[in-house]
Amino acid sequence: MIKEHLRQWSITGSRVAAALLLASLGTAVPASSASAADYYVGASTAIVSHFDVKQQPVNAEALQRKERSSRSRVALIIDDFGNGLRGTEEMFALPIKLTVAVMPFLPTTKADAIRAHKRGDDVLLHLPMEPRHGKPEWLGPGAVLANMSDGEIRKRVETALDNVPYAIGINNHMGSRVTGDERVMGIVLSVCQERGLFFVDSKTNYRSVVGKMAQQKGLPRIENQVFLDDTHTVTHVLRQMRRVQEQAMQSRYCISIGHVGIQGKETAAGIRGGIDQMKDSVEFVGISDLVKDEWKWKASPTLP
Fold first, then answer.
1. Whole-number mean pLDDT of the chain?
2. Following CA atoms 260, 265, 267, 268 in sequence, which dihedral angle do they give, to the nearest 10 degrees?
3. Which residue of 52, 187, 229, 260 is 20 to 30 Å from 62, comparing CA positions?
4. Following DSSP, what letter does each residue of 183-243 receive, concatenated?
5. 144 closest CA partner among 222, 210, 227, 211
6. How far is the C-alpha of 144 from the C-alpha of 128, rounded, in Å?
7. Is 42 helix (H, G, I), strand (E, B) or coil?
8. In angstroms, rounded to a whole number, what is the distance separating the alpha carbons of residues 237 and 77?
9. Are 229 and 237 within 8 A, CB to CB?
10. Beta strands in 17-62 (DSSP E)
11. 136 secondary structure, DSSP code
């Protein structure tokens, strides 16, 4: 009983509780109120020590984890790294964790992937895939085409993965034709499955079969929800960042895609402005953080 009284007193710091306890123990207390107050404070250490009453330490790290887990999260994927395009430096200077999608077989492919990894970002292979419309030269080297044989498709995917260090998954560069083709996507997703990777559907095609087929293969269904720079102005990117925030607050998370390139600096500037507005309400994470927590994905990638 006395230990319980002491425990309550040690938490609240109540001098009244200390006085009652000292009296119950038959301890003489000074008559003057000032002396008594000093006496209670001084005697508290001895009393608590006598009964071995200890406060529980605050676990700051546990509190931080709880706070992070309760906040909505945003994964920003930045496409088209690998060719030293405009905005590359500005993106790498952003004060958040990014997911850096790197195209294969280009002058800065390996350097960008390694730099992203060292910075703590996630790395994806940004795999060129045949679109329904668009110029063939926009695809870049190593593209997956719908008229290729099964063996050719598999070889292209595996070779591209081997060319991008630290890639933990794939997302499509263009690909509106291929992401609607079950034969082609079946092969691409099989390679992901074999290597412990996942596929992020950029959603360039509303007829995409990627999500459905990923689920059939036991892979997570991961899809882009907001394009940041479908219009290339800082104002538009800021507006899209607000959409990202709203989506994340409603659904616990949001996956969004932006780009380096002709307007890459403007996109980076819009993202930076959005970060300042959103930093108190959302947490910026890599795509792997979302995949592990939201889809309970536990596979480890097989890296080259």
1. 84
2. 90
3. 52
4. HHHHHHHHHHHHHT-EEEE--S-TT--HHHHHHHTT---EE--EES-SS-SHHHHHHHHHH
5. 210
6. 6
7. helix
8. 14
9. yes
10. none
11. G
